[in-house]
Write a structure and sequence with these properties.
heterodimer, A: 346 residues, alpha+beta, Ubiquitin-like (UB roll), five-stranded mixed β-sheet, elongated, B: 575 residues, alpha/beta, Monooxygenase, 22 helices, 23 strands
């Protein structure tokens, strides 16, 4: 099939110029693809190895992966991760992306990838069985020594974990997707979205079990896990889910929500005189609140709707079942109830 | 000679013969034989299974199969269970119900998995199908108890209402009272996912007047002291799920409950047991010997109590349990539950940093040694070794589903600190009937080479935090002949393998890749070249065009379809 050949052009060709649009490569003639691949990948290898050190050129959208890395303290190696990151950086190494906050991406990364390229001849796609095995062995051999070197790092990382038991619970899919610039504190352990693969129903059930049974000193109420609550907004076509455990206070929550739902308010920006998306500040939702356009409310365990922000944060996360961003006009009468509840709890 | 016979074979005879062929695969095969068989078959097809609701349109289905009585649809990809698919992605069932309400007035059964079901859909179901009997909503969402009330009120012939693991907007428990007093045909009720209390007296009356009730799965809100009265009203129960199984120990309650359980001579399956306290364990001892299925995955009792319980269940075939069972408990199971076929061990503290229980690879090895019929495993643990996996593979070549989740990503063999390639390689090599596999731990491209070489019957593969280069993905896509579903997250796979194996994608149901290294350009290319694939880029951080060409997409979902691009894509999906 000539089609696959054509596609593989831009692996080798991209090193020519990372700034060039890949679409140009696609249009290049298929006939020259196979030979070009080999030569250009070799050239590319040379290029990459010389530019290895301390390169953290990862675009912001990769921050998710980087900050997900739990392997190793900042500066240590994580070999398995590297090929992915390095493959991207090969494509975009000169694009001047902002440096990632986590310096986990280190030189070893690119070495890993380029060696794998070395090992797996660019022609693997053309000749199926025989060559692939050969290539694979090369790749395999290259991997193991590195694997051994870096195992100490892995174990080191395990020791490092207890030092910061729950440092970064901020990892939240919604939050990240809402803010590309999300930068977690360099943490030994960050929670990964959707991992371990346990269904929400089970997670929420177990979370409440642990809350009841454990009294560890981890600092957060509820013990562990996550607490997904639905957030709906009047006028929005669908609702979102947020994990309350990933926020530490109302400010973080509101800024995340505002980012998440800003795409819905953009359409209404003109009529309400709000600035565009880029200008939304952290307290924008609070501004909206004060401007009484939208109000953030939540439904608690007693099925009452309350204004968000009136009770202490801990109490809020324990009692909130879901949230709703409603129009200010509908929220009249909520505030007094919230105050009463507070009093009755105290 | 044969040719003449096929011409003169009357259609009713064909139809009669076809009625004995029931599996979807076989029916599909029949319809491909020749045009006349296609025609006969399509008129007598009564059950339709659509594995991906976007692979075909409701109109196409109803046009081809006019006499369907039972429909099964699946919507979101599997990783939606772990919150990887944003809300609003799709899988709305309403368009299907709308079409079927006019085309299938005699529809009896609807089974949905991972679909968004609105109250309007439920109301339409309840009003459109006079002979409606079975509603199974597995991992669905989008409806409330209002919709359930409509079903209860209008479906006079309802047999099964099963809401397993769905997310229900639980406004009140009164929906249950909407079953009319004359209604008595309930056979199966599963409300275990509901949060709030159902009206208990309505439940009692309902259970009491339905003599054919064989499955009753309660929700957590039903207290322990109410169980006995329910059981006494339905001693014919075969499957029972308790509510929260905890209360202060009172001997009278215990003995009443014990008596109630003893009167259920047909009981084969137990579940529920939220917040279980050991004090009330003895109440179920009398039914243990008859149990074939036991779900203790919410039961927070510890290993010694678990061992006492499971040690009495000598006929157990399916066990779901928390890792409180520990290695010692699994050894006990290996010794006593010789009929065990399915084992699932869930983590009690998945986000804890240190292990809280002594559950290791040894437990898995023990059961693989002791239980000769064990073929389906889901196992969460914190350490694994190649040696253990090789042992499991050698012990259980009959393994068909093997899902291992080592909680910390990229964990190596704890003995040798090597990747677990060899271990999983042994699994695919020895278990020739393996249909489903989930990988975890430290894995290189080598494991994918093994999989591509040996796993010829593998239909579903789940991969996370594994591999080094596109070669890995290529091995799987080119080698696994039976592959239907492939889901990948956080792996360094890019464009090469997908594009090289583009044709393979049309032979599969779907491919999911998130947090990998696939570029938007590749996605666009694939979409252009393969008109019978829907290539969906799910990216909540803005249009992929606005980022540089080589920036990887957040999430990618590719599936084959004859229905063309869908009409209900939200703003964060680009195709």
């Amino acid at each position: 099939m000539s089609i696959p050949l054509q596609e593989h052009d831009y692996i080798g060709l991209s090193e020519i110029s990372s700034m060039e649009k890949v679409s140009c490569k696609i249009s290049s003639s298929p006939s020259s693809s196979s030979s070009t691949l080999t030569t250009e990948e070799n050239t590319k290898n040379n290029t990459t190895t010389t530019t290895t050190p301390t390169n953290n050129n990862n675009d912001t959208s990769l921050n998710l992966k980087e900050t997900e890395l739990r392997l190793g303290l900042p500066g240590s190696h994580s070999p398995e991760r590297k090929p992915a990151l390095s493959s991207v950086s090969i494509f975009g190494k000169d694009n001047g992306y902002p440096l990632s906050p986590l310096k986990n991406l280190v030189s070893g990364a690119k070495r890993g990838f380029s060696d794998a390229i070395d090992g797996s001849n660019g022609n693997w796609v053309l000749t199926m069985n025989g060559k692939t095995e050969v290539d694979f062995t090369k790749g395999g051999v290259l991997y193991s020594p590195r694997g051994c070197n870096l195992q100490p790092c892995v174990t080191k990382e395990v020791d490092a974990l207890p030092q910061s038991p729950k440092p970064v619970q901020e990892k939240n899919k919604n939050k990240v997707s809402a803010s590309n610039e999300h930068s977690a504190a360099p943490a030994a352990k960050a929670q990964v979205v959707g991992w371990p693969p346990i269904r929400s129903f089970r997670k929420n059930t177990m979370a409440s079990n642990l809350a009841k049974s454990c009294d560890d000193a981890e600092g957060k109420s509820g013990g562990s896990g996550c607490l997904y609550v639905k957030v709906s907004m009047d006028g929005a076509p669908y609702l979102r889910k947020v994990d309350l455990k990933t926020y530490n206070n109302y400010k973080e929550l509101s800024s995340a929500l505002e980012k998440m739902f800003s795409c819905f308010t953009i359409g209404q920006c003109g009529s309400h005189g709000l600035p565009g998306r880029d200008d939304l500040s952290e307290s924008r939702l609070m501004d909206l609140l004060h401007g009484s356009e939208y109000v953030l409310t939540y439904e608690d365990r007693d099925d009452d709707w309350m204004l968000v922000g009136d009770v202490p944060w801990e109490m809020f996360t324990e009692t909130c079942r879901r949230m709703r961003i409603m129009k200010g006009s509908e929220a009249i009468g909520l505030a007094p109830r919230a105050v009463e509840k507070c009093k009755s709890r105290d | 000679m044969l040719k003449k016979m096929s011409y003169s074979f009357p259609e009713d005879v064909l139809e009669h013969v076809f009625s004995f062929v029931t599996t979807h695969k076989d029916r599909n095969a029949i319809s491909l034989v020749c045009k006349s068989w296609y025609e006969v078959e399509r008129w007598c097809r009564r059950r339709v299974f659509v594995g991906n609701c976007y692979a075909v349109s409701p109109v196409m289905v109803t046009r081809r199969f006019p006499e369907v009585r039972s429909v099964e649809l699946k919507g979101k990809p599997h990783f939606a269970d772990f919150n990887l698919v944003p809300e609003g992605w799709g899988a709305y069932v309403y368009p299907w119900i709308e079409i079927m309400s006019t085309s299938y007035p005699w529809l009896e059964e609807i089974r949905l998995k991972r679909m968004v079901v609105s109250d309007e859909s439920l109301e339409l179901i309840s009003k459109s199908f006079k002979n409606f009997k079975v509603l199974v909503l597995s991992s669905c969402e989008g409806f409330s108890t209002v919709g359930l009330a409509a079903i209860a009120a209008n479906c006079r012939n309802l047999r099964e209402l099963d809401l397993r693991e769905s997310e229900v907007d639980d406004l009140s428990g009164h929906w249950l009272s909407h079953f009319p007093d004359t209604y008595s045909s309930l056979v199966s009720l599963n409300i275990s996912c509901l949060g709030s209390e159902v009206s208990f007296s309505a439940l009692e009356r309902l259970v009491g007047r339905c003599p054919n009730l064989r499955t009753l799965r309660l929700n957590r809100a039903v207290p322990l002291d109410r169980l006995a009265s329910l059981l006494r009203r339905a001693p014919q129960l075969v499957e029972f799920g308790t509510g929260a199984y905890s209360a202060e120990l009172r001997l009278d309650v215990l003995s009443t409950l014990d008596g109630a359980f003893s009167s259920c001579k047909e009981l084969k399956s137990l579940s529920g047991f939220w917040d279980m306290v050991p004090a009330y364990l003895p109440a179920i001892y009398s039914v243990c010997s008859g149990l074939t299925s036991l779900n203790l995955s919410y039961a927070t009792i510890q290993s010694p109590d678990l061992i006492k319980l499971v040690g009495r269940c000598l006929n157990l075939q399916s066990l779901w349990v928390l890792d409180y069972i520990e290695d010692s408990g699994l050894e006990a199971i290996a010794a006593s539950c010789k009929d065990l076929q399915e084992l699932r061990v869930f983590p009690s503290d998945p986000f804890g940093v240190e292990p809280n229980v002594s559950l290791t690879d040894q437990g898995l090895v023990s059961v693989s040694e002791g239980c000769p019929r064990l073929h389906s495993v889901l196992y969460f643990c914190r350490q694994m070794s190649n040696a253990a996996l090789v042992a499991v593979a050698r012990n259980r070549p009959n393994m068909t589903r093997f899902r291992l989740c080592i909680i910390e990503p990229r964990t190596p063999d704890y003995l040798t600190l090597e990747p677990l390639d060899v271990g999983f390689g042994a699994i695919v090599e020895h278990c020739k009937e393996l249909r489903r596999l989930s990988l975890s731990g430290l894995l290189t491209d080598r494991v994918f080479e093994y999989i591509g070489t040996y796993a010829k019957k593998l239909e579903m593969l789940s991969v996370a935090f594994a591999g080094n280069t596109d070669l890995g993905l290529h091995h799987v896509m080119s080698g696994c002949e039976s592959l239907r579903k492939l889901e990948i997250r956080d792996c360094p796979f890019g464009d090469k393998a997908i594009l090289a194996n583009a044709a393979k994608l049309e032979t599969m149901r779907s491919l999911w890749m998130s947090s990998c290294s696939v570029s938007f350009e590749a996605c666009k290319l694939l979409g252009q070249k393969m008109p019978r694939l829907n290539v969906e880029v799910i990216d909540e951080s803005g249009p992929p065009d606005s980022r540089p060409q080589d920036c990887p997409v957040e999430k990618l979902y590719i599936y084959r379809t004859v229905a063309g691009p869908r009409f209900d894509t939200p703003t964060f999906v680009w195709t």
